[in-house]
Amino acid sequence: MRSLLLLLLQIGGGLCKCYNGTPVALPVTQVGLGSGRLSRGVYMPVGSPPQNLSWAPQMFYNDTWIYNTTAPFCPNGTSSAWCTTYRGGLYDLDKSSSKDTVVDVYAADASPSDTDRSEGRNIWYSAWALDDLHIQEVALSQYPLGMPGMEWEVQNHPQGSLGLGRNSTLLTALIKDGHISSRSYGLWWGQDGATQDAQMDGSLVLGGYDAAKTQGSNITGQIRTPTVGCASGMLLTISDITMDFPNGTHASIVAPHAPITACLRNDMSGIMYMPYDPYYYTFEVNAGAGWIRHSIGTEWWTPLYELSEVYQGDLTVVFDSGLSVNIPNKILVTPDRYIDDAGVLQSNASVADVRIQTSQDATNGDTSMLARQFFSVAYLFVDYDTNTFTLWQANATEEVDLVTPGGQCTDVAEVPTGGSMTISSTKTTSTSVGTSTSATTALSSQTALSNPATDAAQPVPTTQSLAKGTLVGIIAGSIVLASLLSAALVFCCLRRRRKSAGVRETSPNGLMIHHSSASSQSDRLPLKAEASDSALYEMETWRTPGELEAKRQLAEIGSGGDGALWSRRKTGRSLHELAGRTP
Known about the structure:
Shape: globular
CATH superfamily of the largest domain: Acid Proteases
Mean pLDDT: 75
């Protein structure tokens, strides 16, 4: 009897928190914004009629943020068309018949952690609306949309933010409505390289991942408590980065020095962000070329080179587990891209852009990053139900094989907090984290819809008569079993309700955020902005390469300006000594 009751409690617990749902896949593509304007991002329209918007997935924020037409916060002197492309589209509330405005994040029933002023990178000022969100065949009505009252994450993250943090409003809404069953997502940014054969749409899978986009072994790590240095909480150790030259020779960037601890941050421009000295300096020594200036285009502050001198080979990133991820030259090196006054993306093919940002001097202590374009060559799966993330070498394909994590079922109100954990990296040969829910199909037909004709044609099972005594016994037993099931269900749900009473959600660092206005100090996020971070983001925005020269000269000859920041090395080497230039 005791075993039966335990089984019933488990069943009741499952009924309280389980939903039947398959993953939802969104394309990462060049989203059309009208008049020839394109912006690469997650395609997810808003409003009625739908307004095209291009979103950037964000690992740390939890809410869905979009700039609107009345407060776009674009740099002074820029055109409205430039601003529209820069922002990935602007939300026009007046053109949506389905929108409602609300007073704040609480009235919107969104996550207040994104607006907490104790954390420097948060969005302190905001307005809120409820509107329709179109996710492929899924439509979420009265979905909370945050509209920033300030510019945040300057340059590296200009688009609308699709918050995929551990308390993601989007994942929560999809779970509550039964569209997905797992608090997880998979991301492949697709290819946006220098050549035609390096162009391919990517995908963002909500509630699972796309196994067709993975290949070979993987590495799995625990999600740590977010910090200022690594807001995602996802850290990996890079034991080496090798330069693979076209002639078949190889040279190491990391092995002569210490391994690199890198944070996953898919909203940052470029492939990676690393210290100039010693790592990127070693890259330049091996390549035999020095950069001429920084890009102020779409790949913000990455180094530009003369076409005749730029590195022609690939890179291979080797993690401590043994996993290797190859970065082909067609992804690593591109023309310098920028947005013109008409809002159209242009390429300056007279110079070559190596998509690696570097830190030095004031920013030299910053944590290294594996940034947005790294996820063109690597596939990421984040599973908050198990508090883990998994990385593979990406398989560039248009095929789709959607997978749901196996056996995991999580109450929406109870999210794993992670805590402070030591990362545990493992090398496996598994190409599946869960159970496949669909055969390999095209992205446009990823959701299997029921066919009424097929469903109606299913044969009706035949039945045989039972003896009266047997029938009465079955009925009586069924009544008792149903009563026990109901009692277990009520007990489970009441226990969970008492457990979560008074608590709105868990904050990104695992602390609890309460509704009461008098919150204790322990309820606030401990993260603070640092001067080294602000130095990276407070640079002035310029629109075209033509404006660079005059501005650059002023900075380079000034005292303490951006030019001084980027021109000095602790080693005392001159800036362009490799190519025989002077600053």
